[in-house]
Automatic annotation (TrEMBL), chains A, B, C:
Gene3D superfamilies in the cross-refs: Flavin prenyltransferase-like
GO cellular component, one term: phosphopantothenoylcysteine decarboxylase complex
Assigned protein family: Belongs to the HFCD (homooligomeric flavin containing Cys decarboxylase) superfamily.
Alphabetical keyword list: Coenzyme A biosynthesis
Domain Flavoprotein: 24-70, 92-156
Single biological process term from Gene Ontology: coenzyme A biosynthetic process
Cytoplasm found in the keyword field: no
Cited Pfam families: Flavoprotein
GO molecular function: FMN binding; phosphopantothenoylcysteine decarboxylase activity
Name listed for the protein in its UniProt record: Phosphopantothenoylcysteine decarboxylase isoform X3
Length: 160, 160, 160
């Protein structure tokens, strides 16, 4: 989240007088059916002033959205790129994660252990919610609503 | 393990008067030489009354048996299907696991940690046995005998 | 590290009168830029008397050296061979590991946990050093110098 001199997205005059921070948001997307919300998430993030968005995706995630419809740079994961990005993350910069899975997966005891481990690393959980899942089951495991994620991103950016 | 109305395998009259439970057993098989016992295990399981069997296999496991000789539905693992099945398992239903490996692998300290983790999840271990392994070493690590596995499956089904 | 009757590398007379131990050193190399030091490490190891060297490599590691220039048997990892070798290692024989990574990776809390786990298994760490990394960052994470590794290997062989 590097502060930069006034510089904003296309369509805003470069002569804009109030300097503003510019933020780089990297969205990592993995193979959950929740990945179908990627286009909606991106368009919502792009509405935040001063935000640049890029996406790193696994191959599995690509089953759930159309790469042609992604309006920002998209990096693919054939070489486990996404894993490497997270592994090499500079922890002075925030990491938010949004679990999304089937209710049986959510209730498996390994999930709580994995979520606890991520939080122990200093990552921020955007908790999953309860609803009727795409697979027909009703219960916890659904990804947080897009607007919840976007609000949380804004909160984090404001503190940066 | 859903109880169902009297319904049995092919060859038994549908008018059979004693209702019986029907059980679904999913056999997961991974890349150990012990996978060569898959056909024997399947034929033994199929002798249990009211049992349906299906197999999910990794690609590596296929080196050890002939897929043509498997008399039940066989699901392959090119997309880590087996891992996903276990990850999304409804833990109200039993999971049995049968370790099978070389003695040096068995004695590596990570093995006891992994076995303990699986048991902590509520899975039931069918312990490996000591014998001369296919690689020539003598020691622990061999998969339990097929009849031991089948007896344990019956025990679990009877409690269901 | 099996002691054997006097037997040395090509070029040394078989009639050599002083018996000496013969050691087998297996070098595992993974996908870090530090892998570009493999040829130097091998030529240094081959100078130790009575040492046979073999290499097991991941596919990723091959981006960093020229397989044509490796003067010893080289086993590739398309089937996760390297992982299997470590997993089945007879722990009566020493394992040394040389971490090598970007500073941000090194500083991620998971690294200390993983290093601690390896040491708990009885493996010996040859600690990384601080320097300007290939990526331009300055900090810890660089692989130990080749001479440090070779000295440590000699020390271990002398105790065997």
């Amino acid at each position: 989240m590097e502060p930069e001199a006034a510089e904003q997205r296309a369509g805003v005059s470069a002569r804009e007088s109030v300097p503003s921070k510019r933020f780089h948001v990297l969205v990592g997307v993995t193979g959950s059916v929740a990945a179908l919300k990627l286009p909606l998430l991106l368009s919502s993030l792009l509405e935040i002033a001063g935000v640049d968005v890029q996406v790193v995706t696994t191959e599995s995630a690509k089953h759930f959205y159309n790469a042609q419809e992604i309006p920002v740079p998209l990096y693919s994961d054939s070489d486990e790129w996404q894993t490497c990005v997270v592994r090499a993350w500079d922890l002075r910069r925030p990491v938010l994660f949004c679990p999304a899975m089937n209710t049986a997966m959510w209730e498996h005891p390994i999930t709580a252990q994995q979520v606890a481990k991520l939080k122990e690393f200093g990552y921020t959980e955007i908790p999953c919610i309860q609803k009727r899942l795409v697979c027909g089951d009703e219960g916890y495991g659904a990804m947080a609503e897009v607007w919840t994620i976007v609000e949380k991103v804004k909160e984090v950016l404001e503190r940066s």
